[in-house]
Design goal:
There is one protein chain. The chain is an all-alpha fold. The protein has one domain.
Length: about 140
Amino acid sequence: MAFEQLAAFADLPLRIMLGIVFLYHGYPKMLTKNGFMEHVKVIKSIGFKPPVFWAFCSAFAEFFGGLAVLLGGFTRVAAVLIAINMLVAWYAKKFVWKSPFNIIHGGYEYDLVLIAAALTLALLGAGPFSLDVIYSLPIS
């Protein structure tokens, strides 16, 4: 199989890992009371009002966005929501909490990688092995 033919599979590793990461981090925020209430505290510390509403939006984007990206359904929309969610996390770390760049010290470098990954999927779409293509979903 030539490298050009393998290009059809290029989105899969990115989609699978991004989906898993966001399902993992979104699950406790979306589906456990303690996780959600801790997330509300974080959102409140950033200054978003009302914090419960914005915490729900963030948790929804992480959990269901992660699921959508993993399955390749409504991938572009989900990836944009994930990118926005991570832009807020980056903003909070850099400008509100004054975290350093280095993740070892609680920094935001990983947030930037996740933003880049999400924007890549938003621009490229899910590829041929996705629910977007199988079911001819809009914005695929």
